[in-house]
Amino acid sequence: MNEQTVHLANDTVVGAVAGGIGAAGFFALLIVVVWQIAATWRAKMLAAREEQYRQLVVKYQQLLEDNLELHRRSIDELTEARRSITSMEKMMREIE
User: How many whole angstroms separate alpha carbon 42 and alpha carbon 52?
Assistant: First the structure.
């Protein structure tokens, strides 16, 4: 083999190795980019879910406060009804 053929073969091997390294680097870059896009999307989804949970907590808190107020009113009305019944029973006993 002459020197020019060996030099050409070496250039071909070096070119193939460089191309392989370049392709591997390109695919690694694509993987990283896709990975980061997926991570960003996941973070946005988690943040949205967290916001929905906060809204549910606020709604639940309001409903709980409303329920507590209704319960207090019911107790007040029941207490008033008991007073009226007790008063009527007392009047009935006095009439007898």
Answer: 15
